[in-house]
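B., you asked whether I could sanity-check this one before it goes into the benchmark set. Here's the sequence:
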Amino acid sequence: MERLFDTRIDGVVAAERGLAGKPHPDTFLAAARDLGVPPAGAAVFEDAPAGMEAGRAGGFGYVVGVDRADQADALRAHGADVVVRDLAELLREE
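And here's what the prediction gave me:
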């Protein structure tokens, strides 16, 4: 699956680079930097409230909460612009 991605910032890479974990935005900012994209021009997709906080703290343009654990309200309260249960919901026309 690695061939499908231009960069990877996971726990291993974060540890190697000394990046702070969420709610700090370090891992998201490192990914944006590696991709050459300003945070304001990027989206964060996360399933935890701490991830919402990290996306907000990093100045990301759009923060998507993925509700996998019936915590939509918490995701919104921590900064999600939108909350979906399935990413396909983002493709629906309104």
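One thing to flag: The two ends are 32 Å apart (CA to CA). Otherwise nothing jumped out at me.
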